[in-house]
Design goal:
There is one protein chain. It is built from 5 helices and 4 strands; from the N terminus they run ααβαβαβαβ. It has a 4-stranded parallel β-sheet, covered by helices on one side. It is of the alpha/beta class.
């Protein structure tokens, strides 16, 4: 069991939601200056999914990847409340051994944006 499995229930309350929301705002500002052609994004180390979920609310198709099963369970539960109708795909994987070609092949297309804010 990783430390993040034990930390999952405290993660959002420790300031991570605020940080993710600030990153979302910053990303929006960056994308105004440096727009991308599509709306498919990959959020690496997505934790409980706050950034992925806010981007989905903006209309992005998202994949969120994290090693922690407990973090992803929270992200999936929160995704059920999305208003946009776009539900991110959350995948459990160790980023140290992530095969991006496999991830891209599974989605049958590349990503227009990749984030890793942690």
């Amino acid at each position: 069991m990783t430390v993040y499995e034990q930390y999952a229930t405290f993660y959002d309350g420790s300031g991570q939601i605020r940080f993710a929301l600030l990153m979302h705002q910053y990303l929006q500002e960056v994308l105004v200056r440096h727009p991308v052609a599509g709306r498919r994004a990959l959020d690496l180390a997505c934790g409980t999914g706050t950034l992925a979920l806010t981007m989905a609310e903006d209309g992005w198709e998202l994949w969120g990847i994290d090693q922690s099963v407990a973090m992803l369970a929270i992200a999936r539960e929160r995704a059920e409340a999305l208003r946009s109708g776009i539900v991110p795909r959350f995948v459990q994987a160790d980023l140290r051994h992530l095969d991006m070609l496999t991830v891209q092949a599974a989605w049958y297309a590349g990503f227009d944006l990749v984030s890793c804010t942690y």
